[in-house]
Design a protein that fits this description.
The complex is a heterodimer of chains A (254) and B (752). Chain A has 254 residues and is an alpha/beta fold. Chain A has helices spanning 2-19, 50-60, 72-82, 89-99, 103-112, 132-136, 139-150, 202-213, and strands at residues 124-129, 163-168, 179-184, 193-198, 221-222. The two termini of chain B are 36 Å apart. In chain B, a hairpin with a 4-residue loop joins β27 and β28 (642-646). Among the domains of chain B are: 1-36, no CATH class; 67-170, Ubiquitin-like (UB roll), CATH 3.10.20; 176-281, Alpha-Beta Plaits (2-Layer Sandwich), CATH 3.30.70; 354-425 and 565-699, 3-Layer(aba) Sandwich (Rossmann fold), CATH 3.40.50. Chain A binds chain B through residues 11, 14, 18, 28, 31-34, 36, 42, 89, 101-105, 107-108, 111-112, and chain B through 202-203, 209, 211, 241-248, 251, 253, 255-259. Chain A: [2Fe-2S] cluster binds at residues 129, 134, 170, 174.
């Protein structure tokens, strides 16, 4: 009897908590199935560019000839860079052809990894880290500022096709949280960059976006001028002297 | 799977306290009653398998291996001993823990594990406790190691499975009342043993978009538990890589990504292997519950393989067809044609004897009148003008009756369609699949001559596919361009290529000569060719060249097309004259719908005896309604020479009668009474002609007499081989009447 009451109460509290507004947090940029559209249909021909054909060969050479399918992930990455940051279904078919597997085996891989975008993204795909340390340091505000500034929703592309905002899980910069990554597809697979901008604030992130829009290259790494890489703000406060050599046992004394 | 008993078994833990709990007493195996709560009583379910299974251990109360689990030791020195719940079991090295438990007679719950598919290990339902292992292990994926102490009924194992079950049910809709799988669902059964009566999950359940896999398989993807059995089946058995696992985490789903129908001739089997109701039969949807159906174990006649099937019927209606296990013929799969042709049994049926009047319209008459007219006409014509043709679906009993009747009328112009002119009925090795269907697995090189096994006999094709996957057998094919679901080299299209191989000029010869067990499969479509004798003699010389026929291996195979063919040749249904149709005045068609009737004289009197108003009915003068294979007891011989019997599942429609009974009655009216009037009598007549037909479920291999064949003087034409079957889904009167088969040919064949 008591247990039932407690459960009931717990559920009530939970319901109240659940009602608090929370945007849906989808990680992937697309559904798990393909819908034909003018720019994404299996009938559109797609091929690796002449320049990338050599890179395809190079990637394939990393793997034994009977395990060609190991090259699916690097090839999909290359195809994504070539195609402006996203993978139409015909690009996946092209990869399947290169590694000689059924297309579905490539679709499986491409849908599994959230870094493969199966819908259009902007030339600059901004990925906000949403994992706990960054979230505590304000990644939600950063995303909000970005979305408000660009006037889009998550995983939506701005009208000029320049920007899109997505969420990413931990990229290992927790010491400089919060951080965003900018995947720059504006220069094709040759000039592709994938840069981290750390220690950002809602104000700074808008500045970065504006610099990118002008074609400038904002300095990568920490955006806090008082920090050097991941060092503490205002210089080191501990471990200032030269480190002592490690203590060694005096074996002769034994 | 029979996990229903597990529910009762779960209650046994409580019976440890209360020993006189009666239910547990009834179900507990008296020999190993002590200490096992999750156990099973296989002998109650599968007495046959239990009897066959070897006695692996003499110590302790002997256990019975489960579900026909057989222990086979390829190398005796590789035997290892493990302990399942304290009982020692000897198993070969390389077996998994789950298989060891099966040998020990312990049923492990499972969803993703399937003995005929690769191991995925992703459902985690088969967790067991292994001594010295820190965590429960997934028994399906863990190899058994010597001395392993496996515990299947400990609190740890039970709790682990309960946890897994709770997670599985988290996103499962629990819509069993409206689910077609209800009553035969693994998840339902196992949740009786490991499920809780309440869930702790209060969030919104996920839902998944349903996929369109074609007219046969209905999908309710929200019910899917991601066991990936269907994905593995499609890839490994059906050989069509259409299905895949898309997304990840809670967004994971089974699908084809791009809109695609499942264009496999075995797609219906995913309905059986799906442990939940995610993939169910579209034609059977919401038609019946499985517990209201009467099951009849019979065999299939839509192709020459004779797949073992179970007809589930309710009242007068066949509700569905599902496969039965037969390791030698169809394993546990059947083709889509076998599974879904059943609605043809209800449509276009002939239910009354009918006579065509002078106005060209049929009029129903009584049996007495119909038989009187037929007998009258038959007695008027000359004996050599009487011709009888048995159809593709004829059983041995009616064929021998037809032959006896015509012989007594003085004619010997009787044959079975599909056998061509002057069929070879003397040497059984000349028309049987001599290496047997399961024997094909031993072959390492296949040469397919004028046969497209994928559409002619999907179960044989599944064996070839299995062999190609297992030991990379090479396949060469001579015939018109066609689809293969395995790696196959198209060597050519006609007899020319055969000659090249026979003369050793073809590159494929090196593969054939290097092969240990080469198999040549000749399609029965060649029997219809005029130059078939010369083609067969070339094939014989290829067989000699490649050493295909040896005392220990007969790899020269003939793949027949129809269920009646092998038995008709065994019974000697060979026409006396080559052009009997052209001179016929009285044509007796016993279900024969594919006979070329253009040459038939216009004044010929045609009797059509059969169950469907199909092609030949248009030319018939009299119609005698007969019963279909689902309504009669009949003997059929499959392409490998194994005779099997059908059993009546439903009563026949209207005034129809068994084929042989009609002929027996007709013979009496015609005054040439046949000397048998029951099934036993007609079978003793068969035993004189072809005793092998009565040895049911037994394969009678052909004796090899290659030297006995006469030399062939015929000239071989260069005309390329043609395909014997145009439309896989429509090959006989039943499938042509089927609406589902029509949908299939409309939606699936146009894609190819």
């Amino acid at each position: 009897m008591f247990a039932r009451l407690a459960t009931k109460r717990f559920l009530e509290i939970r319901q109240i908590l659940l009602q608090s507004p929370q945007p849906s947090r989808s990680l992937s940029t697309a559904l798990n199935y393909h819908i034909d559209s003018p720019d994404n249909s299996p009938d559109t021909p797609w091929e690796f560019s002449a320049g990338n054909k050599g890179r395809v060969k190079e990637i394939l050479s990393h793997y034994p000839s009977n395990y060609k399918q190991s090259a699916i992930i690097p090839l999909l990455d290359l195809a994504q860079q070539q195609h402006g940051g996203w993978l139409p279904v015909s690009a996946m078919n092209a990869v399947a052809k290169v590694v000689q597997v059924a297309p579905i085996r490539v679709y499986e891989v491409a849908t599994f990894y959230s870094m493969f975008n199966r819908t259009k993204v902007g030339k600059y795909h901004l990925l906000v880290c949403g994992t706990t340390p960054c979230m505590i340091r304000g990644s939600r505000e950063i995303e909000e500022a970005l979305l408000k500034h660009l006037g889009v929703k998550r995983n939506e592309v701005t009208k000029d096709g320049l920007f899109s905002v997505g969420e990413m899980e931990c990229m290992g910069c927790c010491v400089n949280a919060p951080m965003i990554t900018v995947a720059d597809y504006s220069k094709g697979s040759e000039g592709y960059t994938y840069n981290y901008y750390e220690d950002i604030t809602p104000k700074r992130v808008v500045e970065i976006v504006e610099m990118l829009r002008k074609g400038e290259a904002p300095p990568v790494g920490t955006q806090n001028p008082k920090r050097i890489r991941s060092g503490p703000e205002g210089g080191n406060t501990t471990l200032l002297s030269e480190p002592k050599p490690p203590p060694c046992r005096d074996l002769d004394a034994c | 799977m029979g996990f229903g008993v597990l529910a009762l078994r779960a209650s046994r833990t409580s019976s440890a306290i209360n020993r006189c709990f009666s239910v547990s007493r009834i179900f507990a195996n008296p020999s190993n009653r002590h200490s096992r709560s999750i156990a099973s009583t296989p002998e109650l379910r599968n007495a046959e398998a239990a009897a066959e299974a070897p006695q692996t251990q003499e110590i302790h109360p002997p256990r019975t291996p489960l579900a026909g689990a057989r222990v086979h030791f390829p190398k005796p020195e590789d035997a290892i001993e493990v302990f399942v719940d304290g009982f020692p079991v000897t198993i070969p090295k390389g077996m998994t823990v789950l298989q060891a438990c099966e040998v020990a007679g312990v049923d492990i719950p499972r969803f993703c594990y399937h003995s005929r598919l690769s191991i995925a290990g992703n459902c985690r339902m088969c967790l067991v406790e292994v001594e010295k292992s820190p965590k429960p292990v997934a028994s399906c994926a863990m190899p058994a190691l010597p001395g392993m102490k496996i515990k299947t009924d400990t609190p740890v194992a039970k709790k682990a499975r309960e946890g897994v079950m709770e997670f599985l049910l988290m996103n499962h809709p629990l819509d069993c009342p409206i689910c077609d799988q209800g009553g035969e669902c693994d998840l339902q059964d196992q949740s009786m043993a490991f499920g809780s009566d309440r869930g702790r999950f209060t969030d919104v359940k996920r839902s998944v978009v349903d996929k369109n896999l074609g007219p046969l398989v209905k999908t309710v993807m929200t019910r899917c538990i991601q066991c990936t059995r269907c994905v593995r089946f499609a890839t490994e058995v059906a050989g069509v890589q259409d299905l895949g696992m898309l997304g990840r985490g809670s967004g994971e789903e089974i699908g084809t990504y791009v809109e695609k129908l499942m264009t496999s001739e075995l797609s219906g089997n995913v309905i059986d292997i799906c442990p939940v109701g995610a993939l169910t039969s579209k034609p059977f949807a919401f038609k019946a519950r499985n517990w209201e159906l009467k099951a009849t174990e019979t065999i299939d006649v839509t192709d020459a393989v004779g797949s073992n099937i179970r007809i589930d019927s309710r009242g007068l209606e066949v509700m569905r067809i599902i496969p039965r296990l037969n390791e030698d013929i169809n394993e546990e799969w059947i083709s889509d044609k076998t599974r879904f042709c059943y609605d043809g049994l209800k449509r276009q049926r002939l239910n009354d004897p009918m006579i065509r009047g002078p106005d060209g319209r049929f009029k129903s008459v009584s049996w007495r009148d119909a038989l009187a007219i037929v007998a009258e006409v038959a007695l008027q014509v000359k004996p050599e003008e009487i011709v009888g043709v048995a159809g593709r679906l004829s059983d041995a009993e009616s064929m021998i009756a037809l032959k006896d009747f015509l012989n007594r009328m003085g004619s010997n112009n009787v044959w079975c369609e599909g056998n061509g002119v002057r069929p070879n009925a003397d040497l059984r090795s000349g028309y049987l699949l001599n290496s047997s269907i399961s024997g094909l697995e031993k072959a390492d090189v296949f040469l397919l001559v004028g046969t497209q096994p994928r559409i002619e006999a999907p179960m044989v094709n599944a064996r070839i596919h299995k062999t190609v996957r297992a030991n990379h057998a090479k396949v060469g094919y001579i015939g018109p361009p066609t689809d293969f679901n395995y790696n196959c080299k198209n060597l050519g299209t006609g007899p020319q290529t055969l000659l090249e191989i026979a003369e050793g000029r073809h590159p494929f010869c090196s593969a054939l000569l290097a092969a240990k067990n080469p198999a040549i499969i000749v399609g029965a479509g060649l029997f219809e060719r005029k130059d078939k004798d010369s083609i067969l003699s070339v094939i014989d010389s290829i067989a000699k060249l490649g050493n295909v026929v040896r005392p220990d291996w007969n790899g020269l195979n003939f793949l027949l097309l129809h269920a009646a063919q092998a038995a008709s040749l065994d019974l000697g249904l060979v026409p006396e004259s080559d052009n009997s149709i052209e001179s016929a005045k009285f044509l007796y068609l016993m279900g024969a719908d594919d006979v070329e009737l253009d040459e038939l004289p216009s004044d010929a009197f045609v009797v059509y005896q059969g169950h469907h108003g199909d092609r030949s009915v248009y030319r018939a003068n009299v119609i005698l309604p007969a019963s279909a294979f689902s309504e009669k007891e009949g003997t059929y011989e499959n392409t490998e020479g194994c005779s099997q019997q059908t059993l009546p599942a439903v009563p026949t429609v209207g005034d129809a009668r068994d084929d042989w009974k009609i002929i027996r009655a007709l013979s009496e009216v015609a005054g040439v009474c046949l000397p048998y009037d029951n099934l036993a009598g007609i079978r003793s007549r068969i035993s004189v002609v072809a005793p092998n037909l009565l040895r049911v479920d037994e394969r009678e291999p052909a004796l090899i007499h290659t030297d006995l064949k006469p030399d062939c003087q015929q000239k071989m034409s260069t005309e390329p081989f043609s395909s014997a079957v145009d439309n896989f889904y429509m090959t006989d009167s039943i499938t042509r009447a089927s609406k589902i088969m029509a949908q299939c040919s409309a939606s699936l064949l146009s894609k190819k």
